[in-house]
Amino acid sequence: MTSQLHTVEKIGGTSMSNYEAVRDNIIVADRSKEELYQRIFVVSAYSGVTNELLEHKKTGEPGVYALFADAESDWAWGDDLTKLIKFITDINGELFEDPMLKQQADQFITDRIEGVRGCLIDLQRLCSYGQFQLEEHLLTVREMLAGIGEAHSAFNTTLKLQQEGINARFVDLTGWRDTELLPLDEKLKQAFDAVDLTRELPIVTGYAQCKEGLMRTFDRGYSEMTFSRVAVITEAREAVIHKEYHLSSADPNIVGAEKVVPLGRTNYDVADQLANLGMEAIHPRAGKGLRQSEIPLRVMNTFEPEHTGTLITGDYVSEKPQVEIIAGAKGVFAIEVFDQDMQGEPGSDRRILDILSRFKVRFIAKDTNANTITHYVGSTLKHVKRVVSALKEEFPNGEISTRKVALVSAIGSDIKVPGILARSVKVLADEEISVLALHQCMRQVDIQFVVDEDNYEKAIIALHGVLIEPHNHGYAIVAA
Questions:
Q1: pTM of the prediction?
Q2: Which residues, other chains included, contact 303 with Cβ-Cβ below 8 Å and sequence gap of 6+?
């Protein structure tokens, strides 16, 4: 396989749900038949499918996995699996007009789902014996269920493209009925050794079964890791992510579409800051592989294919210091531990971090002084209550308090702008927004403002207005 000729491109779930847009804007566009190739597409499940398979990403409403994992639900997961077949075959019905192709697509995914049903029934029966614990197998169950969504969308897309005269090739990394469990990189090498990129268009499942267990580390971010490693292993010229929106200077739904502008260029450091706030351009671990291999990442809008998108590289620094993006996170819990015994005791923070780690609670930011440490966490109230209970046991003489807040960040590849902090705090004060806490690192890539949750959108609008809008003309220059 010749290196540095091809691209590896990831298509998100919302984009995948619009086949015509994917075909017309991403895969075919204005390319000649010869220009269709030298590209690898890693695809996500259709919008909503992974929510039905696992649990709803935002509301937490249980899907098949969550019902199976809940011992009290008994056979509720089986009913949910039956509903899932209808949901998925309805998607097929909208996609395929040809009844023969629809039958082929339905048969493929129904066989997978019924295979999983049989496996889960056997596992439930096995775990009714005391020697076998269901908890030990749940991660495997989660991975097996997750893989159904990507297998479905990749198979369908391959079938549709083949019908339309494109030599698409279904590359199934989900491990369905595989007898050998390989490390991820080895699995990818094997999968692509047989692919001729000069005349084949691989459509690859975003989920890859491997020895490392992608969900153990990345959970629902697994498709980005697959995408990143495919780009690294095949030595891609460029990695591209197609989303349903531009990577812009702020959320257009908050600031207004006429005021925000797509970022022309930025670097992986900025992408990491966005990921920390839960607004991922790419998962930091996935970005790390691309950065180390010096593969540029381009984020493009599926529905504006003529726009060259945002180019992310490791070495980019803006020509002049400036803020590139205002982003934030709502629904953040501030967990404050006040204990006078902390003074001069260096181990206090480690004790708190051990508890956060035990409950798998990720912190976004923290601040500390002589006797107080506050962690700002993105988690559910249920998990926060468990953390607080454990902290009270760990710090019996301390005072533990929580508060729901929002974080708003000014981010850029180089924000060493004289007076930036003064201007930011002034505009927030002018809008009668109290700054509850403030974080700025010497690295000069972001400033985080902690504000009341009610002031989240107001703070974003105010900071965008003073730090970005006066310089918007500079952002219209898009990297070629």
A1: 0.86
A2: 21, 25, 244
